[in-house]
Design goal:
Layout: E1 2-9, H1 26-38, E2 45-46, E3 55-64, H2 71-81, E4 86-94, E5 106-115, E6 128-130, H3 136-143, E7 148-151, E8 166-177, E9 180-187, H4 194-206, H5 214-221, E10 236-242
Parallel strand pairs: 3-10, 5-6
Antiparallel strand pairs: 1-3, 1-4, 2-3, 5-9, 5-10, 7-8, 8-9
Helix pairs in contact: 1-2, 3-4
Length: 259
């Protein structure tokens, strides 16, 4: 049978999601734990591969198994074998037609910025520190230029391997709560470093280094070299993956809120 599961993790100890030789990854830890519960080797497919240091409150995976286990057993058994920085929140049987990556309709990320003159201590690795005051009204106005279907070449990594740079952005919003600035984005899919490159552009605008129109100019240039810095991974969280309602899967994880 095919099982879907929702996972949350702290990305700091791992070199991203995908298995790589000689380094610790989230996928490796998850497959090892599930294999122990299933009593056979398990390989998983995820909704979206995250980079080194990126977190998730709702990563969705699927795997195939011949083992007969209850939903409770998949969750409790796997968490027994997982490190403290990773846990399964739920597991559900799904039809063979389900695919964690290709059946996902929308994905949402939150990027968290601590905007104060002093760097964080206990929040190190969980938020991005920006000491320059950020004008969130300007950032939000600039972000609206990215709504809709566009060629996001200028906002993806040069090494991005996606066949097409075209993505549809459904929602992008910048808000402030005290010293914390939140960038929320929702699209059909994301390119490599896309959210972090958007965050870098918007922070430059918010700090007054660039005008509001710059976000649109970068987009229309279709040239990654025009987009400035790639923002750090620390503040990025995968928070939601949406599928057709017929699969009856939870859509969202916990939304990271600080302050």
């Amino acid at each position: 049978m095919r099982i879907a599961a929702g996972i949350e993790y702290d990305g700091r100890p791992y070199c991203g999601w995908q298995i790589q030789e000689g380094v610790s990854t989230v996928q490796e830890a998850v497959e090892r734990a599930l294999s122990k519960v299933a009593d056979h080797p398990v390989r998983v497919i995820c909704a979206g591969r995250t980079d080194t240091g990126v977190h998730a409150t709702q990563q969705v995976i699927h795997f195939d198994t011949t083992a007969q286990r209850s939903e409770y057993s998949w969750v409790r058994g796997s968490n027994t074998h997982l490190p403290d920085t990773i846990c399964l929140n739920w597991a559900r049987p799904v039809p063979d037609s389900f695919h964690a990556r290709f059946k996902a309709r929308r994905r949402a990320y939150r990027y968290v910025i601590l905007n104060r003159p002093i760097r964080p201590a206990w929040l190190t690795g969980k938020v991005v520190s920006q000491y320059l005051p950020l004008d969130t009204d300007k950032m939000n106005a600039a972000a609206q230029h990215l709504i809709g279907e566009h060629d996001f070449t200028a906002y993806r990594a040069l090494a991005c391997q996606a066949r097409s740079p075209v993505r549809e952005m459904y929602r992008i919003e910048v808000t402030r709560s005290g010293e914390f600035v939140y960038l929320d984005v929702c699209a059909n899919a994301f390119l490599h470093h896309m959210v972090r490159n958007i965050a870098g552009v918007l922070m430059s605008i918010g700090a007054g280094k660039k005008p509001v129109a710059w976000a649109k100019e970068v987009l229309e240039s279709r040239d990654r070299r025009q987009g400035g810095m790639t923002a750090p991974a620390a503040g990025l969280y995968l928070v939601r993956v949406e599928y057709d309602a017929g699969f009856e899967l939870p859509a969202a994880g916990m939304l990271p809120v600080f302050g």
